[in-house]
Automatic annotation (TrEMBL):
Reactions this protein catalyses: 2-C-methyl-D-erythritol 4-phosphate + CTP + H(+) = 4-CDP-2-C-methyl-D-erythritol + diphosphate
Protein name in the entry: 2-C-methyl-D-erythritol 4-phosphate cytidylyltransferase
Positions marked as site (Transition state stabilizer): R15, K22
GO molecular function: nucleotidyltransferase activity
Name of encoding gene: ispD
Originating species: Shewanella ulleungensis
Length: 227
């Protein structure tokens, strides 16, 4: 199966509050996005990596990976889903029969081990699957005043991670339909769910964090140093 990686990297990192988009902040020797791209570009099953960039991006061209033969750029959109769709449109023109492995630029601690696990789930989940982590804490539902109304069954709750792995044709179709219908789409699976598909859950490593707040930088650096 031919696999095209899609990397939404067009965000501005408002919660990080740094002087540049968080994917360009340094983590050890290189930027967060450079780490993420290295993991994907070095995987032998991934034939192409399409990265979606902000229209005013001034940093990408300085990355050592920018001219890698497997790498292509597209202009992203206003929301993460718009950026993913822009890359999917491009992927359709390369090979509509391929599978998309969509992975956040802001998750630099991804390991080949998890990519392999997700790709390996294709036989079990021909409709597509996502990496996810089982919820560990006891979960509470509250009312509007912040008072606990009940305890939610934890065994059935998961944190949705990336990569998320779907057939390009199906994902492009469902994502564009869902966006046109103004459905709130925060990951690829939600577009598939909206279309009636039940994606598989593949348990992933808990160190595959999304760098979101300033505190996450130290945590990501720690995880990165433990190879
Ligand atoms: N992303 C994107 N296009 C957008 C918004 C986000 O490609 N219009 C990307 C980000 O670059 C990031 C991933 O989607 O790699 C996950 O989004 P998030 O963590 O929310 O990043 P930001 O939107 O940049 O951060 P914030 O929400 O704090 O502004
Ligand atoms: Mg965001």
């Amino acid at each position: 199966q031919s696999i095209i990686a899609i990397v939404p990297a067009a965000g501005i990192g408002s919660r990080m509050g740094a002087d540049k988009p968080k994917q360009y902040l340094m983590l050890g020797q290189q930027s967060i996005l450079a780490h993420t791209l290295d993991v994907l570009l070095s995987h032998e099953c991934i034939v192409q990596v399409i990265v979606a960039l902000h229209p005013q991006d001034q940093y990408f061209k300085q990355l050592p990976q920018a001219k890698h033969p497997k790498l292509m750029q597209v202009i992203g959109g206003g929301e993460r889903a718009d950026s993913v769709l822009a890359a999917l449109d491009h992927a359709m023109s390369i090979n509509p029969c391929a599978w998309a492995l969509v992975h956040d630029a802001a998750r630099p601690c991804l390991r080949h081990e998890d990519i392999n696990k997700l790709i390996g789930s294709l036989k079990q989940y021909p409709q597509g699957a996502i990496l996810a982590a089982p919820v560990r804490d006891t979960m509470k539902r509250s009312d509007a005043n912040g008072l606990i109304t009940n305890t939610v069954e934890r065994a059935l709750l998961w944190h949705a991670l990336t990569p998320q792995f779907f057939p390009i044709v199906a994902l492009q179709h469902n994502l564009s339909k869902a966006l046109a219908a103004n459905v709130s789409i925060t990951d690829e699976a939600s577009a598939m769910e909206w279309a009636g598909v039940m994606p598989g859950l593949v348990s992933g490593r808990v160190d595959n964090i999304k760098v979101t707040h300033p505190d996450d930088l130290q945590l990501a650096a720690l995880f990165m140093s433990q190879s």
